[in-house]
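Q: Please design a sequence for this.
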């Protein structure tokens, strides 16, 4: 395997693991004592940060430089 392919695979796996963790955390906050409206600001932060994570993945691994 080439170095570029290994870089893409490892970055994708890391991004997916981060996404699963953060979405699970947001879901547990919303279903717990905070409720939906209490957890809504955290959901907004989660989606904004995940957009940045996937943009960085695309920028550093996929985009041709």
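A: Design:
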């Amino acid at each position: 395997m080439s170095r570029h392919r290994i870089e893409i695979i490892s970055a994708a796996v890391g991004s997916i693991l981060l996404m699963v963790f953060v979405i699970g955390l947001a879901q547990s906050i919303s279903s717990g004592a905070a409720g939906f409206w209490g957890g809504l600001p955290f959901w907004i932060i989660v989606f904004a940060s995940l957009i940045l994570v996937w943009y960085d993945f695309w920028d550093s691994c996929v985009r041709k430089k």
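Q: Thanks. Anything notable?
A: Residues 10-60 form one domain. The CA atoms of residues 14 and 57 lie 10 Å apart.
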